[in-house]
Structure formats: structure tokens, C-alpha cells
Input
Amino acid sequence: MDLFAYDFMVRALLGALIIGLIAPALGIYLVQRRLSLIGDGIGHVALTGVGVGLLLNQSPVLTAVVVSVIGAIGVELVRERGRTSGDLALALLFYGGIAGGVVLVGLSEDSSNANLMQFLFGSLTTTSRQDLIVIAVLGIAVLVAMLGLRQALFAVCNDEEYARVSGLPVRTLNLLMAVTTAVTVTIAMRTVGLLLVSALMVVPVAAAQQVTRGFRSTMAAAMVIGVGSAAAGVWLAGEVDTAPGATIVILAIAAFVAVTVGAGTWRVLRRRSAPGRQHAAAQLEPPEVVLQAEAR
Output
């Protein structure tokens, strides 16, 4: 029987495709800025928002968006103005978020472990029509921001001081990155869960870096890998009855391993087939470490 004959599976697939598209589009900036783990930190803060929603009998998704945005902005301001380093700010975000979330969920009337697990590890097949609308609207907004401001965001992530001297609104762009990260983490709760969303931001980017040189081509390849992992993960989870979020992440990691092995094998074969070019090739930067902005 066709799994996608059911409405809930169609909603699950659409939600996964949206997250698979926007998470790498945002994640490439976080990787470039060496903030790959910020998704985990904001995910922990979003758990506090979930606890607030359950405690007040409000929508956990909406309260998680509000709380995670406030937390992300707070961390960015601490990083920018205070003496606290980025790593320490993320650590405070981790511990405070998870502790507050566990306490608030425990105090709420709906404090079952099953309900908590849905937010921690995702519950894609329970995505409602309203959830899908929220995911689509916020996802489109994030994608438009990441693509429309690509050059400015790349400049800030690559060299913040140079971007400031060039006249770019660095603080505004940093806050935009914090807000879009918080929004992406929150709407991905239903897809891969708060504890796994960071993997979908980082792993497709890491895989794309193995075979691309330019920033724009890396972003495009990462988005393709993210969408492919999401679609295949939903289908495979339905076929073998596994958790969709975890299946999506495992397939993304498998794609990274396959691309890495394939790219390495190809480079070895090229060196063996053209030994006279080995010295010239050694002078080139390996493609996995080059992320240059490309001209339009």
C-alpha cells in the first residue's frame, strides 16, 4: 500500500522537505562562523518554551518560538558586548535551557514522558494542518532572508571587522542570524526534534564542502542533500517503522560518509592517472576547505 495515500504522511513529507531545505541554507552560515552547535543550545532553550506552553495551556510551538528567539538574541548580545566568550554563552544556553524545560514540563498537567519525547526527538507523523502552515510560512521567511542577504551574511560570517568597516549593519545581521536560527530550530521540533535539529543544519553542509569550492555552490549542494535526506528518511521510516527524525539524520550522515569516501577515492584515482600533475595539484587548496563568495 502506498504510504503517501494517507494525509498525515503527506503532511509529514511536506514538513520534512521544508526543514530539509532551510536548515542547510541557514547552517552554512553557522558553519562558516564556527557556531555549528548553536542549534543544540537554542533547542534546549526552546524546550523551556515548550514547558511554558504546556504550563499555561498554550500552543507549545508558539511559546517555544518566543522563548527561543529571546534566548538567541540574549546570547548574541552577551557575545557582542560582554566578556563572556561564545563557547561559554552557548554552555549557559545549554544548561539553563534544558533545566528550565524539564522543570516547567514537570510542573505542567501534561507532563508525560511520551509528550516530552515528541519535542525532543520529533513526531513528524503527528504534524497537523496548522503545524504545516506555520512551518511553511516561517520556513519561507527564513529561506528568503538567507538567499536574499547571502552576500552580506557571508561577509559578516567570514570577517566581521571587515564587514563593519565596509558599512554593513553587522549588529542587525547578527541579530537576524540569531532570530532565524531560533525560528528554524523551533519549527523543526516536529521533524527531527530539538536534540537532532543541529545535525540537519551542519551535516549536509559538511558533505557539500567535500565536493564544492564556492560558497553559493556549497549552499546549493547542501540544500539538495538536506532535501534528499528528508524525503528518503520519511519514506524509509514509513517502510521499516522507525523514528522519522532519527532516520533523516542517519541518512544525512550516511550521505556525508559516502560523499567523503567518493571524493577521496576520486582524488586518489586522478593522482594515479596523472602523476605529472601531482606537484601542481599539491599547490591548490583542497576543495573541502575553500568557501569563497562567488560573483553573481
User: Anything to note?
Assistant: The radius of gyration is 20 Å.
